[in-house]
Amino acid sequence: TTLSSSSAASDVYKRQTQSTGRLKHCSSSTGPRKEKKIMALINQYFCLVVAIILVFLLYSRQATSVKEIENNLNTRLNTLQKAQEEITQNEQQKKDDLEELVRKKSNDLHSQIKTVETSTKFINYPRPKLGLQPNNHWKRPGDNFPYQNFTTRTIPDPRVDLCKLQAFDYDLPSACVVLPFLNEWIPILKTSVMSILERTPSHLLDKIVLVDDANNASYMSDVRQTFETFPKLSIVSNAKREGLIRARVAGANTCDSPVIVFLDCHIEVNVGWLEPLLQLIKEDPTTIGIPEIDIIAEDPPYEYTAAPDSNRGGFLWILEYTWIGLPQDEQLDRREGYDPRKTPTMAGGLFAISRTWWEFIGKYDMGMDIYGAENLEISFRCWQCGGSMYILPCSRVGHIFRGWHTYDFPSNPDKNKVRLAEVWMDDYKEYFYQVNPNARNVDPEDMTDRKELRKRLNCRSFQWYRDNVFPEMQLPPSEPK
Fold first, then answer.
1. pTM for the full model?
2. How far is CA 468 from its chain centroid?
């Protein structure tokens, strides 16, 4: 019994011992797990803190870099602004110096030219006299004409320095030049053409169109022989005498260039003559550009004289063109010899016009005959239908002002004037009839197409023309009936 009880107690002790050992084993294995979890959390928090610190440091550094860049940019910007101000000041100073130099030289130039009155009186230009020369006058022997060789002569360049320094767009429109001729002396016609070829940039000149207004066969044989080797030149021949007006239209109809330039056949273009005209038309295609018309004497040695820079076109109430002076306020507001001059009318022999504008406003009045009043008609039409006209002192073309003509005039010269007055002058036409009462009996023929043209283009009244274009226009002394 004692042994059995001892054995039982021993078994109980062993079981307790084993149970206690298992408990100890369990408690010892649970402790390291908790420590690992804690360490993992600590590591995560540490990494997070380190990441936050790194992000903060990077952001601080980036902000510092951005601020430094901004400061550098501001510094450079301030430097550039100062440099630009210095350049602007230097350019303005140079411009002022240049304008002062141009003003002095211009004054020296124009002090040698007859002073033009600033009123609507005649300027003393040579005025042609009526009279027809023999058809063979162009073969006059013994004349000391300076252009016998196949080169142009040297002529004075009357432009002011500012014109010579003028810059033009690189993409100026090109031009087609139209010259009608009738019984013109061939050496003069040749000089007109050669001066255009030699003093015009090749890329700006598409072609020259000579319009033969039914010259006789012998004369034309000499003309064709003279010009057979000339580049960029074509000859258009009328089957019958059409006159200057319709001959110009015939020549212009063969032009495809953006700009058409009409010239007389007894001219001599000067250096740099075309570019100012093209620049003006490029900037405003509804503007007609007119060169400064210098004077070439009609007799040997055909002296070239500069025209004054203070004239513009006007008209008399008999509807004839006349030169008039600039108003005093316009003279004070412009740079002499450089700035374009607004002109109410043009002489008509020399001008440049956009081909699109030329066609849009109706070319010439084809109901007019030969020559006369077409220059006033296109002047009124251009202004009243939304365009403008300017004389450009930087464009110089010499013109021979003769005391005779190589052609005859229409039998009834008042017909053209009556058409002009009836279509474009509204009630002001009565002033024309007042000073020329015989014109009331003239038959102007059908004017329906021209009146419809004015209506279609929605052109302004002649009162608007007087108020806005030619307010200095003087009316006849008595009121019209």
1. 0.69
2. 22
Strand partners, 399: 267, 295
Contact 281, 352 (CB under 8 A): yes
C-alpha 31/C-alpha 28 separation (Å) is: 6
CB atoms within 10 A of CB 282: 17
DSSP assignment string, 78-102 = HHHHHHHHHHHHHHHHHHHHHHHHH
Gyration radius of the chain over CA positions = 45
Q: What gap in Å lies between CA 245 and CA 252, rounded to an integer?
A: 11
Is residue 481 scored above 70 in pLDDT?
Answer: no
Q: Which two tokens stand for residue 245?
A: 């007006």
User: Any residues with CB less than 8 A from the CB of 266 and at least 6 apart, and which?
Assistant: 184, 185, 188, 189, 192, 296, 399, 400, 402
How many residues does this entry show for the chain?
A: 481
Mean per-residue pLDDT of the chain: 82
Cβ atoms within 10 Å, residue 287: 21
Residue 447 corresponds to which tokens in the numbers above? 């004017």
Through-space distance between the first and last CA atoms of the chain, rounded to whole angstroms = 173
Cβ–Cβ < 8 Å for 359, 313: no
